[in-house]
Design a protein that fits this description.
This protein is α+β, with helices and mostly antiparallel strands. It folds into two domains: 32 residues; 111 residues, Nuclear Transport Factor 2, Chain: A (Roll). It has four helices and four strands, in the order ααααββββ.
Length: 162
């Protein structure tokens, strides 16, 4: 009879831990994926990342700087849909900001998961570059998981044959 109570106590304890872990997982995930005020470089960077993770490519595109050779919305969307840009295998935390006139450098901590259960993954410190345009902050460059190498690159012109 004592063993039955002991076993029941262990099972109840395990059940409580599972419920607590699930509750923590779902509440943390929801709170991190909300939009904030986009009146600062950190806010714009955060909102761009939320839009990318939520697959709201139109909103994410609205945060890009208006510069020469800016990709079209369709090129931007295609980069994600064709997995040329794939943020799904990483997590990101927005850090501090350094202002330099009309430019801002936002520190991003990117966490990459491991490919096997015995590794812990790794974390990189990267930077996002923003520029002030028309009184609002716009993204000029992001780390590779959130940015395609060919955005803002001039379209190559064919060289005529001699």
């Amino acid at each position: 009879m004592k063993q039955d109570r002991f076993l029941m106590g262990i099972l109840i304890g395990i059940g409580a831990l599972v419920i607590a872990a699930l509750a923590l997982f779902f509440t943390r995930k929801d709170s991190a994926m909300t939009y904030v005020a986009d009146d600062s470089p950190e806010g714009v960077t955060h909102n761009y990342l939320v839009a990318v993770f939520e697959r709201d490519y139109e909103k994410a595109y609205s945060y890009l700087a208006d510069k020469k050779d800016k990709p079209t919305l369709e090129q931007f969307r295609a980069s994600f849909l064709q997995n040329m840009v794939n943020p799904d295998n990483s997590g990101v935390e927005v850090g501090g900001v350094e202002l330099s006139g009309e430019q801002a450098y936002v520190t991003l901590y990117i966490q990459f998961g491991s490919s096997d259960p015995f590794s812990s993954g790794y974390r990189n410190e990267e930077r996002a570059v923003l520029v002030k345009q028309g009184g609002t902050w716009k993204i000029e460059q992001m780390p590779f998981n959130f940015w395609s190498w060919d955005w803002y690159q001039p379209t190559p012109q064919p060289i005529p044959a001699p």
